[in-house]
Amino acid sequence: MANLVPMSETIPATVPTTMKAITQTDPDNPRSLELADVATPTLQPGEVLVKVAAAGVNRADLVQAQGNYPPPKGESEIIGLECAGTIADAGDTGREVGEEVGCLLAGGGYAEYVAVPVGQLVPIPKGFSLTDTASIVEAATTVWSNVGMLAGLTEGMRVLIHGGGGGIGSFAIQMCKAMGAEVATTAGSAEKLAHARELGADITINYKEESFVDKLKGSCDIILDIIGGPYLEDNVRCLGLDGTLVVIAVQGGPKGTLPVARMMPRRQSVHATTLRARPVEQKAEICASTVEHVWTLIEQGKIRTTIDKTLPLADAARAHELLDSGTVTGKLVLVV
Amino acid sequence: MANLVPMSETIPATVPTTMKAITQTDPDNPRSLELADVATPTLQPGEVLVKVAAAGVNRADLVQAQGNYPPPKGESEIIGLECAGTIADAGDTGREVGEEVGCLLAGGGYAEYVAVPVGQLVPIPKGFSLTDTASIVEAATTVWSNVGMLAGLTEGMRVLIHGGGGGIGSFAIQMCKAMGAEVATTAGSAEKLAHARELGADITINYKEESFVDKLKGSCDIILDIIGGPYLEDNVRCLGLDGTLVVIAVQGGPKGTLPVARMMPRRQSVHATTLRARPVEQKAEICASTVEHVWTLIEQGKIRTTIDKTLPLADAARAHELLDSGTVTGKLVLVV
Fold first, then answer.
1. Which of the residues A260, A281, A283, A286 would you substitute to probe the B interface, choosing the one with the greatest number of B C-beta atoms within 10 Å?
2. Which CATH class is domain B18-136+305-335?
3. B228 closest CB neighbour out of A250, A260, A266
4. pLDDT per residue as tens, chain A (336 positions)
5. Which of B170, B167, B157 is nearest to B243 (CA)?
6. How close is the nearest chain A Cα to the Cα of B145, in Å?
7. Where are the domains of chain A?
8. Residues of chain A with C-beta less than 8 angstroms from the C-beta of B233
9. Which Pfam families does UniProt cross-reference here (chains A, B) (predicted)?
10. Which of B191, B194, B196, B202 lies closest to B326 in space, CA to CA?
11. In whole angstroms, what is the distance from residue A123 CA to residue A133 CA?
């Protein structure tokens, strides 16, 4: 039946044609984030409409508000890379209206409704709330796709995770530990390092007080990095034989020095990735693999949420301000 | 029977206890290479003794003579990374004395005899002489292990090969072309570029006259690089989506700038490797895979030798001088 009428008309009567969403009123002011009425998204083939209950806040959202991380072509201009909620319209997918799901998004999470390719839906882990789920979808898929699928994490490896106090770092420490790795991590405060140790980190380094190279030189199998350019050379010096450095953010700068001669006899590699720019087929593959390999660990209690604070969706600007301040340990979640 | 007596006594009567080999008389003079009498190598378990007929000359040999590329621990101090010849003593391997073989070496090729782990023996391709074989073992294993096994070359990819006039480059152009790739290459003279075109290169660039980035920006799936540091950033700019840069030599310098932010949305990677430092198990795997995937192409005439000149073993210094001059196109081979 649904295929006999245009997509936009398949929205059930319970879905309004307009919705509240966070919009940026001044492109030059990254804090000018306000709730406004916008059109409810229409569905493309293979998408479901999700009524958002909670949306995770990511550092990339701050960069987008600064104008430096525009959404991929054709994606929502609304900020927000992950959420959880209830399917309000299953479109042509055959999914059930009313099903609770987590969502990996290319954008659009800071809103009452979001259109999601069906391959980017993940189940709610047993024991998790929608808010819990909204706080881990982006981290779980990012960490597993890079540390597991790309770098080939196996038991007994030593993994260095930069930014152990952040959302990605908090998830990565727990996941690597649960998979049998020895985990080293860096952070910039005693509080964040204590948090990292609670999550299972074996070696914690305050980068403001000591050199991580001195502690880890030549010993790491995998490094998950969010600093980029300024850490490149030191990261490589921490890698051991066949070591893999994966850079997923460049918070410190876009370029750096690579000591390629040093890498040769050690057969090392540097990979740089973003999840958001991947085609939907790859995102679907990543979501499926993440659920297969990581969801059990969550349901066994080996990986828990690390929500620092929840705020109402209307307070997106304040959430960004908090995250920017460097005082947040773990995740911020906006609830609708 | 062989196992009942010490290894050193298993050398058949026809193998003398001393042999001629190139030795460096002055560690500070890379051209002080002279034939001298040295002890014939004794065999370790799993090794055969090969009577060398011809030994390929590699740029790495020049670096070793300069004192900058010492042999891995436990390996021969004699220069020479590849040869071909006849098994003179099969040790405990069960191979046949008298069998003709090509050899991938960690060192020792510039000599009358060399001890070789049995996994590093390759058959003589049909139609190839021992001299032909000695000219391609190192190139074939290096190119296949990096472009095939590591970077995953498939039909239709665009591959950039730096140094199309050299031994590695000449082999890589032909192999990639034979496997259905589009091949771009750089070299420093019209003569070398003509040679590269004869071997099948589709795009040839004189790096002294034009920018390879201008011609190839964002278009390459795989880059095989021998320049290292100074080319890093330009190489990355030439990579396309999911592109792989493999650095196997640093003729231009040991470090360079890596634009890691640029790489992220394109999911690019940089690998650095050397074949010589790999453990024997990996070398055996690489030799077997190279024979499996590349030998047929040689026997079908799709990859030919590109020997510029053969010289007597005693003329090793002159061979190094020639290779250093930059006027050699293809390979130099020393014949015993």
1. A260
2. alpha beta
3. A260
4. 344 444 444 556 689 999 999 999 999 999 999 999 999 999 999 999 999 999 999 999 999 999 988 898 889 999 999 999 999 999 999 999 999 999 999 999 999 999 999 999 999 999 999 999 999 999 999 999 999 999 999 999 999 999 999 999 999 999 999 999 999 999 999 999 999 999 999 999 999 999 999 999 999 999 999 999 999 999 999 999 999 999 999 999 999 999 999 999 999 999 999 999 999 999 999 999 999 999 999 999 999 999 999 999 999 999 999 999 989 998 999 999
5. B157
6. 12
7. 18-136+305-335, 139-272
8. 255
9. ADH_N (PF08240), ADH_zinc_N_2 (PF13602)
10. B191
11. 9
